[in-house]
Amino acid sequence: MKSVNISLGDVAIAVFEGLSDQLFRDATSCADRREIADGLLTAAILSWLAAHEPCGEPGCAPCAQLSTEAARTAVFLRFAESIARRRAEVIASLPKIPSRRPVNFN
Ligand SMILES: [Zn+2]
User: Fold this and answer.
1) Which of 53, 43, 48 is nearest to 80 (CA)?
2) How far is it between the farthest Cα atoms of the chain?
3) 64 C-alpha to center of ligand 1: Å?
4) I want to staple 33 with a disulfide (CB 3.0 to 4.6 A). Which of 27, 28, 67, 69 is the partner?
5) pTM: predicted TM-score of the whole model, two decimal places
6) 62 alpha carbon to ligand 1 midpoint, in Å?
7) In this predicted model, which residue has the larger pLDDT, 33 or 3?
8) What is the C-alpha R_g of the chain?
9) CB 70 within 8 A of CB 93
10) Taking the domains of the chain in order of start, what are their residue ranges?
11) Whole-number Å distance between alpha carbons of 64 and 38
């Protein structure tokens, strides 16, 4: 049997996407979808910030760059920006769909 290598991050993304799909299914308006997205993003950011609190071990190299709130925020913003940039690259790489032009019946 061939083994599949899936990271914990991939598992978290799949679970999160399943949850968001379930919540969006019940949304009846753009405002509802945005409110749901805001809630999901808030929970994700709070989870990320909590997981990136320094461990408190003196000399811990992985935590050195996260030692202050400002440093954690800067790391988080770079991470969020990289996700948005990757999404924009994927969208830009998709085949272009010709725009619909109004049909002239004259
Ligand atoms: Zn640490």
Assistant:
1) 48
2) 79
3) 7
4) 27
5) 0.70
6) 6
7) 33
8) 20
9) no
10) 8-37, 46-94
11) 30
